[in-house]
Amino acid sequence: MDETGIAGVVATTLLITRFAMAAIFIRAGTVNQLAVANYEILPPSLVPAVAVSVPAGEVAGGVLLLLGVAPGMASAVLAALLVCFSAAIGLNLTRGRIFDCGCGGRTVPQLISWRHVAVNVVLAALATCVAIAPPTGLELLPGPRGVFSVELPAGSGIPLLLATVLCLLTARMLAAALAIRSR
User: Which of 65, 77, 90, 139 lies in the 20 to 30 Å Cα band around 125?
Assistant: First the structure.
């Protein structure tokens, strides 16, 4: 594969990552009951403001990624947010505290675990990759470029968007089927 082909694969992978991150954060922000008080990290007076602003920030970041509005900046902010989530969960786990993280919505309580920390670290790494080298293509307002510039092969943006949406829907249907089967 020549250098252009490798750059195209990298750009395609980063674009798919951008759309997947958008879906993850839009979902998280809309179902998040955010059990901020459970973490016992913030002063009680700040809990209500953080409980409202974090889900709003998640949804806003996801929408910015989806639309391609300053995706490098949005990814950097979301990566920082994921690192904060990992630190808060890790701190509580080292304290021996286990409680509902608030990320599963009201109907699916999820206890914090080291798995949450690992997933958040992986997502933070992916968001950092998008921040460092935001792929060009399917952007309404590119914003500042990252350290590297990678371009999508001409004409591949819309098919990639459709393929990503199909993959995310398929993953969601499989998760629902597994949930039903495990009952």
Answer: 139
Residue with tokens 């990503």: 164
Which residues, 6+ apart, have CB-to-CB distance to 33 below 8 Å?
A: 102, 105, 106
Type of residue numbered 98: I
Question: C-alpha distances in angstroms, 154 versus 17, 21, 25, 73, 90?
Answer: 19, 23, 28, 24, 43
Structure tokens at 69: 């509005």
CA distances 158 to 54, 135, 155, Å, are 31, 14, 7
Q: What is the pLDDT of residues 153-163, one digit of tens each?
A: 566 566 666 66
E strands in the chain: 135-136, 150-151
One-letter amino acid at 79 equals A
Structural contact between residues 88 and 39, judged by C-beta atoms closer than 8 angstroms: yes
Residues 55-67: b if buried by 16+ CB within 10 A, e if exposed: bebbbbbbebbbe
What pairs with residue 151 in β-bridges?
A: 136
E-assigned strand segments in 78-156:
135-136, 150-151
75-99: pLDDT as tens digits: 899 999 999 999 999 999 999 999 8
For residue 180, give the amino acid letter: I
Structure tokens at 84: 């904060």
